[in-house]
Amino acid sequence: MSRVMVGVKRVVDYAVKVRVASDKKAVDLANVKMSMNPFCEIAVEEAVRLKEAKKASEIIAVSIGPKQAQETLRTALAMGCDRAIHITTDLRTDQELGPKGVAKLLAAVAEKESPDVVIVGKQAIDGDMGCTGSMLAAYMDVPQCTFAAKIDLDAKTVERETDAGTEVVSFPSLPAVFTADLRLNEPRYATLPNIMKAKKKKMDTIAAADLVADLTDGNTVLEVFEPAPRAAGVLVDDVDALVDKLKNEAAVI
Amino acid sequence: MLSLASSLPGFTTSSNPSLLQQHGKGESHHPSAPPCLVCSPADTSQVQALVRLCGEHGVPVVPHGAGTSLEGHLSHLDPRPSISLSLNNLAALASLSVPSRTATAGAGLTRLSLNEQLRGTGLHFSVDPGADASLGGMAACAASGTSAVRYGTMRDAVRAMTVVTAGGEQVNTGSLASKSAAGYDLNALYMGSEGTLGVITELTLNLHPLPSHVSSAVTVFPSLSAASKSVVDMLLLGVPLAKVEILDRSAIRAFNAYAANVPDLREAPTLFLEFHGISEEELAAQVAMAKDACEGHGSSEFEFAAGERERRELWAARHGTYYASVRLRPGAGGVVTDACVPLEHLAEVIEETAADIEREQIVGTVFGHAGDGNFHCILPVREDDPADYLAKIEAFNGRLIERTLAKGGTCSGEHGVGSGKMLYLKQQYNAPTVGVMRAVKKALDPKNIMNPGKIFSWDE
After folding, report:
1. Residue ranges making up the domain that contains B120
2. Is the ipTM of this complex over 0.90?
3. Looking at beta carbons, which residues of chain B come within 8 Å of A75?
4. CB–CB of B122 and A195 under 8 A?
5. Are B35 and B107 part of one and the same domain?
6. Fewer CB atoms inside 10 Å of the end CB: C or N, chain A?
7. Considering only CB atoms, which residues of chain A are within 8 Å of chain B?
């Protein structure tokens, strides 16, 4: 049976209408609802299903961020992870700490914990970088199977979703890194008995600086701004008027 | 109205013809009777200002949530120009208490949106009518759903409300405490008042822990009567059924045709069952007892939904049975009946009703919340239907109500009276009873601006 490590990220809740901070350097996160990144939820769910199918013996959830990242870890524990590791940092996890830094930190934890299976979300909905999984596999020097829609550890195959359709790839051996795509599974709702049990599960804390010395990202964010507001539309009275406008004004037909 | 709009931040109005049409119609066959204007206040104080203004000018107000009314509640039938008061902007989840198991939310928030926001808390809002209705609309119509047999209806779910009266005052009903003996029960007064006594702007709701162990099963019976009787037995045995729905042959046929991602079911009188337990053992004990009771009335083997996704798809499909039934005749609107009888009479009444549909050769389905003695007939009707078919349907409806009332039942279990069932309310209650309702209405809304012409007539 495998030991599974799952990376989870605390991000702005997907339903929030995000606003740019007045200094245009970042998104305004004050009093904004935060949740576990949806793809990370899918990653946790997959790990828990592996444990339920007796293919995994232990699931470790890892997150990087401020104190509140522990709430995200408690959610992962409530869904069925066994223990958690909180890597503390004051760096903004939506832009200062990039995929390179995250991958280095997770690789450092993997070095200590020796997981057979590592699952992360394919991307985080704040940065939308989609790089962490691949970079982590490179740092760990292990195979990567990204955009996984189905993981078969026995057959050592993964179904991947691509724009052209689904392809099946095989990986030579474990350990390997998998990144979770939307159709991998539908995450469970945590129930209260599990939420209450999760409060007692082990959570270790370690400072990011104690794991990795240099976390500077290759990129620097110069400016954050909203897209230009859409011009108001025009109401037309009938199809003929619509066709006329599309033809003669917008020149698209 | 427009000058009021310009003075209040966030308050919008619209006279877009499509929007007006939409606001004058719910999800039933009743044709649209549109308002003159749709107003969308931003908060309770703006609702108050709007209602006060309407009162001063004698303008009727019909509150509008998600537009899922099934009995023509939203029809603007009054001769005076009237407005639709949209609660769309009062849709925030204001607060949540996990230990008290309550949530306070704007009346415009829909039940599925509320549950989406409760993800991760381990709690959920249990009242589940077929539509994704607004919380205010659900309270105004005393809504119910498949979970009522164990978790109760909207009457049990609402702890407190903020209501704006016809005079534009703010009234606070109930208490945040789980029970209260302080003063008249104003929660009960406004519950089911269908917008005729005031506008509900905010509600504090009771939540339930998500069940930790769930099992769903389907089983068929030789008759609707046998299925109904097994429901009586299961409840007498103390099986805490979480859901128990009954569907007739035609409902199953419609269900099979409509629900693409659920395997086809046998076309026979069917019970859909759901069990909630705190442990595997408790769940197994409930299921064993239920099976025994059902088999005593000739049921088939229980077929269980394999996993959580299959279970959710099964119930989503059950919720879609209304739409599936209407689809039996493309282009039709649904005539929906909503009889509810004491459980001892369910077997007989549902059997007679199904036989009536068959004998009259009416296209329709029969399904419902067997645990509450509540069942619906969905009869799709088209605008081009011949007059004698429509007359047949009306006569059938009349017989159903008579049959229901004769057994001490109610003409509406959960859909409300609206404009569609006013005739039946008068059959169900004697003049003094309706007189009490009328006295309350006249006391609280002397100008008759709150959703006029619904439930019962202003004049005797």
Report:
1. 93-209
2. no
3. 120
4. yes
5. no
6. C
7. 15, 35-36, 75, 78, 186, 188-195
